[in-house]
Fold:
Amino acid sequence: MTTRTGPDWRRLVITVVMLAVSILFLMPFIWMLVTSFKIEKDVFVYPIQWIPRKWNAVANYKEVWFGDYPFYLYYWNSIKVSVLTTLISCTASALAAYGFSKIQFAAGRWLFMIVLVTYMIPGQAILIPQFILYRNIGLFDSHFGLIILGSFSVLGTFMLRQFFMGIHQEFIESAKIDGAGHPRIFSSIALPLVKPAVATYAILRFIWTWNDYQNPLIFLRSDRLFTIPLAMQKFTSLSGEFYSLIMAAAVSAIFPLLLIFIIGQKNVIAGIALGGVKG
Amino acid sequence: MEQRMETAAAAPPGIGKRTRKTGSLQRGETLWGMLFISPMLLGVLILVLVPIVATMVLGFADWNFVQGWNGIRWVGFENFRNLLHDDMFIKSVRNNVIFLLTVPVYMLISMVLAILIDRFVYMKSYFKVAYFMPYISSVVAVAVVWQVLFQPSYGPINELLKSIGVHHPPKWIADPHFALLSIMMISVWISIGFNMIIYIAGLQSIPRDLYEAADIDGANGWTKFTRITVPLLSPTSFFLMVTGIISTFKVFDIIAVMTQGGPVGSTTMMVWYLYDTAFVNLKVGYASAIAAVLFAFVMLITLGQWSAQKKWVNY
Structure:
């Protein structure tokens, strides 16, 4: 058998080779991080200085966070938009998923088909009417509008529905016989059982919202409302040739998500693998 | 961002065996059902269904945002006819088609990486996280970093190329002949993580005893790879191919940040052109026609997926 005849050193060699490949693969991130610590004059010195000759980290990050385009403000905006979008999206998705899987009513079946069809519509095909709608009902250039726009992705409904379907119907029926109504069954029986799935979806939704560039670009106009990706781009065009600052901004944009990803790694990877979810 | 899910096409739950209940009970169920699904349904209705109908309708209009409602002029199929003679649109579609090449490339790389990581290395979770990093990172930040790396005259990539003897390295995103290729390379780099994770999940669902049986029959590694691994991964590959193709039609962020469709239109793609037409040039009707074509493309691929799934996928 391969597992026994393959001596350990073979696995070791492959691991070492793969390690080298992965470092090459991550080179842009390493370069970004190192450059963000440098003084501007050293950015393009070749051969690349992987350890900065002169450290300028504090000044660079201070400029990014509290300079003309203050990142603390955009962080706050991104946190606000991402947290609220995640909350609303999880609530609406869990409710709908329960309704579509655990409550049996005729209309539910064809309404689910309609929801299924909307899933095939590429978001960009409906941008223009959404924009016109938002201009006319006053949601344009507001965080509230952006949050609402991100909250009604039917993906969460599909994902959580799969999990609700895994709960035996007898559970629900016996709770009903005991006199519990659907709100009670939902909140004290069904939801606790699918909590891990909700957590996975929440992490994914948070990451997608945090990284979203297209919606903020189209539906926000005022600088003070910008989220991180939009601010990142504006900062880049503003800072022009100050590459060390741009890299400090890029690190700032990527870092918190990386942290969330590494902490929730198991959840994210399991969720992506399970649903084949594409962000 | 747009997401896809394999299970989305799964059949509705087994509702069939339910026993007939009395009318009032069933009415109660219907009421509760509607209450539970109404927030999502309302959101989808207002933010997706009405807009997609509106997109189709506006595709037949000649209208500019600033003219107000009275400025709408209905022009029939004129927008669509014009699209056929619009060089920029044709170029966009052509670039979209070229971009399809990224899909098999990153699928192959991801499959190889997935097999290596799943079967042949220590520190599996490190590798999963490492290759997943570009996918989890903000496209804007990543695009900005690559923009600097690709800097033609003193960027690190060209410095490296010069130092190993390439005297006239390409100007990458500043060169019309290389810009699309550069963006495609970055796109491959970003997509590997996602595809690899799905492939690893697919590999883990292949029963171990198949390999053991092959070992007993004396099959070598290559035979096992081509006769067991590849065929049994075919549902995964099919899924990744379809989602990959659909995602190439939605490429936008990276173009918007890195090239804005340039230089000289060499990296324009459908969604970028749509955005440019609608939100920069404010030609709403014409842009809606582009959106309708985009929708049609994605719809066709999805329907094609459904009909081809049974035929191609080797379960």
In short: Residues 26 and 184 of chain A are 49 Å apart (CA to CA). The mean pLDDT of chain A is 87.
